[in-house]
Every structure is written in structure tokens, then in C-alpha cells.
Design a protein that fits this description.
The complex is a heterodimer. In chain A, α5 (105-116) packs antiparallel against α7 (140-164). Chain A has one domain: MetI-like fold, CATH 1.10.3720. Chain A is an all-alpha fold. Chain A has helices at 7-35, 39-43, 57-66, 68-99, 105-116, 124-133, 140-164, 168-176, 181-210, 214-218, 226-231, 241-261, 263-270. Chain B is an all-alpha fold. Chain B has a single domain (46-289), classed as MetI-like (MetI-like fold, Orthogonal Bundle). Helix content of chain B is 74%, strand content 1%. Chain B has helices spanning 4-36, 54-61, 63-94, 101-109, 116-127, 134-141, 149-152, 154-179, 183-191, 196-223, 228-233, 245-254, 259-289, and strands at 38-39, 49-50. A two-stranded antiparallel ribbon of chain B has the order 1-2. Classes of the chains: A mainly alpha, B mainly alpha. Chains A and B meet through α1, α4, α5, α6 and α7 of A and α1, α3, α4, α5 and α6 of B.
Chain lengths: 276, 290
């Protein structure tokens, strides 16, 4: 039964929720506005909220001066590559644990989870030295590799919880009908697993896109994704706010859209299925 | 029914993932342990020598370690407290009949998707700049002296930025949990004449106990290693005021090139994280059985 909602209650909670929602969102909005200002207006006191001279020149300048697309491409390759490889490794593993569990499955899952608990800074030194001696510093392949391993436990966990929900009876039925494991995988499991796969893919893309420990420490220019690129704006004091805002807006826009689509799965993925 | 053949198949499907994660966990960790017993400076290659526990003695008695441990605890504790104390009322509010709730949800969750370097720099410059920042302008509207955030209260500034990033996470999880709360139970309580406050204390809060625990543990794991926000705003300063353990280890490794004591510090960080991980794994493990 739906809760009785008096008009007054609806009005009060609506105003409250919109107010606080807007407050939380405001820094992002303010950044987007700044990206359309001139540098002078972005820095001006008192600030102008909407009545400024709107310009898109910052976006052009960011591309011209600092080759924005090079870094965006790095982000796409690093986030996309690490996600795809992680999925390729995780799908068979999660499938096997969900459908042919053994006594040790639970231990293996928890052990995988515990590898995610290791603070990256604990292994920064050896990874840095290994990368240095193999010439992997500032290389995309090096970052693909490390982000893939870093997110692998989350990917396996998410897939496992989704695969677990596929009803067993369907598999039994397919087996009765004489389907081989290969056919079972292609015709029965895959169609049912696609929603879970899609949300896992999405969440992992977001995590990899925003990862800012390994990318900052292991890349400088050639392989630098957007996280490192934006960090390069930290040195000059003040003068480049509009350009910083334009570069930042471009860097977060695609992921914000993806994130909004995947917010339900986000809870599940980030809590390892502990909250659904 | 598992035949021997499917068992074999299942195992071979699992092996690559287990093997990779095993190598990923064991090799760097073993190297960290090994390096931590060496005198090893990248500035002075070839001079590596075994020094036993000397690096640990050096790292643990370094005043910078105590300062950074304290900063880490203050940072983690404050952000946890703020995200939960603000997250609960926010989630309760969003659980009310709100017109356009989906849109409000989008606004609230947005900061979580902003990459750390962007949120840190936007806050540092556009909002917290002592002259041209929005906060300075707001303060002057009320006739107050603007705060020079990164000089006067640098750690608080970092705490606010990180809180803004993690508040959506806490709110979203608490909201998800609230929405799974049985409406009938609440209605029954209301019909029995329970006040809103006692409904909250006796029904809602116990229901939120588990999600709150999960939020605390997961946030702790990420907050213990906050790095990018400090890297782009303060560089650990002024002095050591915003140096946390993660940043201290980074600066010993890649600024001072002291591999030995950075490795010792890395192990200390691993131990601290493991204490938290132990509890999280237990909670998640209990959930697996249900």
C-alpha cells in the first residue's frame, strides 16, 4: 500500500530535496559555467552567474595548446582496454564459480576481494621499479595492465552475483535437451547474462576512467590520460580557470552520462553485493 | 550434475583469474618486504645493503610518520562522520514523496563520477580561492573575512573536498537500503501511534545498521589511500599538515628516492588496511551464505 502523502508533506520534502540536491551539484554547474567565461570573468569578483559574455574559445584553446584529444584518446584506450581484458578473464572465472561451485568457492571469492583491499601505495615501489626496468613507465600498455588487475576482483564479484541470479532450472532443462556446455553458454546463458555484463562493463569503465593513483604515478605525458592531464593544471596559480574548467568539463561529461545510467548497479558493484 | 569433465572445465576456467590475482598480490608484496630490509636509494645505485629492520625503525620513529598517521586518522574519521551524518538525513529526505525524485538523485550522485583531480582543482580554485573563489565572495556578502583555506585550514579543506566526493556514495547506499525497508512495518508503527522520531529510532535506524557498516568499511578502504586530492592541491603541505600515509610513502619513494624506507612504510599501510579488510570480508562473507 502506498504511503499516504499529504500535499504539505510533498511540497516540503520536494523543496528540501531539490535545494540540497542543487547544493551538492552546484560545484559541477559552477565549473561548467566558468568554462564558458573569459579568463578575466572566471576570475572576477563579484562573480557573474549567467550574465557574462558566453564564449566557447576555451574549448578551442584547450585542444590547440595542449592536444586534449591525445589525452582523451589515452583515457579511452586505458579505461576501455583494461575493462575488456578484465571481462575476458573474469567471465569464465565467474561463470565457473556461479555454476560449478565447489567447497572452496567462497574462500576463493573472499580471497579475491581481499586483494582489492591492498592499498596501492603498499606496492608502489616495486611496481614503479619493475615498470622502470621494463620500459613500461608512461606507456599505455602498462596502465592497461595495472588497472585491469586492480579492478579484476570487482569485475569477478559483480559478474558472480549476476550469474548467481540466473535460474538453475533453465540450465537443467537445456542439459536435458542435450545441449553441450558450449551451446548452453551461447544460447542460454549469454542472453540472460547480458544485462549483468553491461552494468559490470559500465561500472568498470567509470572506475578505470577516474583512477588517479596509478595514472598519476606511472604516466607523465605520452600515455597520460585525462586524470594526469588535468593534474597538470595544478601548478599555475589562478590564471587558467576558464581553461581548467573547459578541460574538466570535457573530461567528466562522458563519464557523468554513463554514470547516471548505471547508478543502480553502482551500489551493488561497490558493495560487493552486500547492499542491493 | 557435475561430471568429472565439467569439474575439470570449471577449474580451468577459474585458473587464469586466480593465477593472475595471485601473482599480482604476491610478487609486488614480496618485493616490498624484500626492499624494506635494504638500504636502497635510487640516487645512489649499487649501494644496496641488508639493514634488517632499520628501515622500520627509521620510518616508525620519523616525526613525519606520526604526523601523517594523525592526518590520516583525522581525514578518514572526519569524512566518515560527515558522509554518514549528512547522508542519513539526505537519504531520508529523498525517500519522501518528492516530485522529480529521479532528477534530484542525478544531481546528488553526480560528484561521485567526477575524477579526483577535477574535483580537487575545481574546489581549490573556483570555490576556495581566498580572493576570487566563490566562498570568499559569499563570506564578503555577510561581512566576514574570507578564509584562506589552503593556508589556514589545509586539512579541513581536503576533508571538505573528499566529503563532497563520498557523500553521494553514502547517500545512495543508505537510500537503496531505505527503499527496501518494509513499508507495512512502518505503517503499522504509525497506526499504533508511534511518533516519527520513535519510528526512526526503533525501525529505520536498526534497518540501516548494516548498510552503515558497509559504508564505513568501504569508505575506509578508499579513504586510507586518498592521494590525488592531496597531490594536486597541497602537495602534502604546508609543512606536513596535509601529508597522509599514502602521500608520505609516495614522497619517500618518488621524491626522495628512498626505496628502503618507502617500502617499510608501504608495509605499514598494508597492515593498517588489512585490519579494516578483515572486518569487511567477514561481513561480506556472512552475506554470501544467506
Amino acid at each position: 500500500m502506498a504511503r499516504m502523502a499529504t500535499t504539505r508533506r510533498v511540497v516540503v520534502s520536494t523543496i528540501g530535496a531539490w535545494f540540497f540536491g542543487f547544493l551538492i551539484f552546484f560545484p559541477i554547474l559552477w565549473m561548467v559555467l566558468a568554462s564558458f567565461k573569459t579568463e578575466l570573468e572566471a576570475f572576477a569578483v563579484p562573480p557573474s552567474f549567467l550574465l557574462f559574455h558566453w564564449t566557447t574559445e576555451n574549448y578551442a584553446t584547450v585542444q590547440e595548446r595542449s592536444d586534449y584529444f591525445h589525452h582523451a584518446m589515452n583515457s579511452i584506450i586505458i579505461a576501455g582496454g583494461s575493462t575488456l581484458i578484465a571481462l575476458l578473464i573474469a567471465i569464465p572465472a565467474a561463470w565457473s564459480m556461479a555454476f560449478s561451485p565447489t567447497k572452496r568457492t567462497k574462500d576463493i571469492l573472499l580471497w579475491m576481494l581481499s586483494t582489492k583491499m591492498m592499498p596501492p601505495v603498499g606496492v608502489l615501489v616495486p611496481i614503479y621499479l619493475i615498470y622502470k626496468s621494463f620500459g613500461l613507465l608512461d606507456s599505455r600498455i602498462g596502465l592497461v595492465f595495472i588497472l585491469c588487475l586492480g579492478n579484476l576482483p570487482i569485475v569477478i564479484w559483480m559478474l558472480f552475483t549476476y550469474f548467481k541470479e540466473i535460474p538453475r532450472d533453465i540450465l537443467e532443462a537445456a542439459r536435458m535437451d542435450g545441449a553441450t556446455i558450449g551451446r548452453e553458454l551461447v544460447y542460454v546463458l549469454t542472453p540472460m547474462a547480458i544485462p549483468g555484463l553491461a552494468s559490470t562493463l559500465l561500472l568498470n569503465l567509470i572506475l578505470a576512467w577516474n583512477e588517479a593513483f596509478w595514472t598519476l604515478n606511472l604516466s607523465t605525458s605520452n600515455a597520460a590520460p585525462l586524470t594526469t592531464f588535468i593534474a597538470s593544471y595544478s601548478s599555475p596559480e589562478g590564471l587558467f580557470w576558464a581553461k581548467l574548467s573547459a578541460a574538466s568539463t570535457l573530461a567528466i561529461a562522458p563519464i557523468l552520462v554513463l554514470g547516471w545510467f548505471s547508478q543502480k548497479q553502482l551500489v551493488r558493484g561497490l558493495t560487493f553485493g552486500a547492499v542491493k | 550434475m557435475a561430471t568429472r569433465q565439467t569439474q575439470f572445465l570449471a577449474r580451468s576456467l577459474l585458473t587464469p583469474a586466480v593465477g593472475l590475482l595471485f601473482i599480482w598480490m604476491i610478487v609486488p608484496l614480496a618485493l616490498t618486504i624484500y626492499f624494506s630490509t635494504l638500504h636502497y636509494s635510487l640516487l645512489d645505485p649499487g649501494s644496496e645493503s641488508f639493514v634488517g629492520l632499520e628501515n622500520f625503525r627509521y620510518f616508525l620513529t620519523d616525526p613525519a610518520f606520526l604526523a601523517s598517521l594523525q592526518n590520516t586518522l583525522v581525514l578518514v574519521g572526519s569524512v566518515l562522520a560527515l558522509t554518514i551524518l549528512l547522508g542519513i538525513p539526505l537519504a531520508l529526505l529523498m525517500d519522501q514523496p518528492v516530485i522529480g525524485r529521479n532528477f534530484v538523485r542525478l544531481m546528488v550522485i553526480a560528484p561521485f563520477f567526477v575524477m579526483p583531480t577535477v574535483s580537487a582543482l575545481v574546489w581549490k580554485n573556483l570555490l576556495m580561492h581566498p580572493v576570487s573563489g566563490l566562498f570568499a565572495w559569499l563570506a564578503s556578502l555577510f561581512g566576514l573575512t574570507p578564509i584562506d583555506w589552503f593556508n589556514d585550514v589545509p586539512l579541513l579543506a581536503v576533508i571538505l573536498i573528499v566529503t563532497w566526493q563520498w557523500l553521494p556514495f553514502a547517500t545512495l547506499i543508505l537510500l537503496t537500503a531505505l527503499q527496501s525497508l518494509d513499508e507495512e512495518q512502518k505503517e503499522a508503527a504509525e497506526m499504533d501511534g508511534a511518533s516519527a522520531v520513535s519510528t526512526f529510532i526503533y525501525i529505520t535506524l536498526p534497518h540501516l545498521a548494516r548498510p552503515i557498516t558497509v559504508v564505513i568499511l568501504i569508505e575506509t578502504i578508499f579513504l586510507l589511500t586518498v592521494f590525488a586530492e592531496i597531490f594536486v592541491t597541497t602537495g602534502g603541505g604546508p609543512g606536513l599538515q596535509t601529508t597522509n600515509i599514502a602521500f608520505l610513502i609516495y614522497s619517500q619513494a618518488l621524491i626522495q628516492f628512498d626505496v628502503g624506507s618507502a617500502s617499510a612504510g608501504g608495509l605499514v599501510a598494508v597492515v593498517i588496511a588489512n585490519v579494516v579488510a578483515f572486518f569487511l570480508v567477514r561481513i561480506v562473507g556472512r552475506n554470501l551464505e544467506a
